[in-house]
Specification:
mainly alpha, transferase, Malonyl-CoA:ACP transacylase (MAT) domain-containing protein, 50% helix, 3 strands, Acyl_Trfase/lysoPLipase, single chain, Malonyl-Coenzyme A Acyl Carrier Protein, domain 2
Length: 145
């Protein structure tokens, strides 16, 4: 990702766009550009922290897809798994960048999310993806944040 950021202006543009959206929702706790680009070694970066790694993977996947399309390379179909679900939804033009970045992965079961987290606020958020029995993604309308 770092090499493409430095050598490909379109990849750079997408990483910067996604960094802006992520910074808005994580209250400045961390920045994609800092963890991926500015910190030059894995030891300096928190890239191995799941809460940073998964959004970073999303950003790289989206920027790489944009780069491939710019080279006239288009997917015949899109398959995703786990952290790739959000990128696939965006690349398939099912969600806007803002909607996709606001999706929240949780280490809870579908039942726990439905009966504990979302109980009484179903009109504000819903389960967007069930990745495995103990990892779901919820999403909500931007105006409810």
């Amino acid at each position: 990702g770092r090499q493409l950021y430095e050598s490909e202006p379109l990849f750079n543009k997408w990483i910067n766009l996604i960094d802006g959206e992520m910074t808005k929702i994580n209250n400045g706790e961390w920045r994609l550009l800092e963890e991926l680009i500015e910190k030059k070694t894995e030891q300096e970066s928190r890239i191995n922290d799941t809460n940073i790694a998964q959004p970073t993977l999303f950003a790289i996947q989206v920027a790489l897809a944009a780069l491939l399309v710019s080279w006239n390379i288009y997917p015949s179909f899109i398959i995703s798994h786990s952290a790739g679900d959000e990128a696939a939804a965006f690349v398939a033009d099912r969600l806007s960048l803002k909607e996709t970045v606001r999706m929240l992965p949780l280490s809870m079961s579908e039942d726990e999310v439905e009966n504990k987290l979302l109980k009484g606020i179903e009109h504000l958020a819903c389960i967007a993806v069930v990745n495995n029995p103990h990892l779901v993604t919820i999403s909500g309308d931007e105006k409810n944040y």
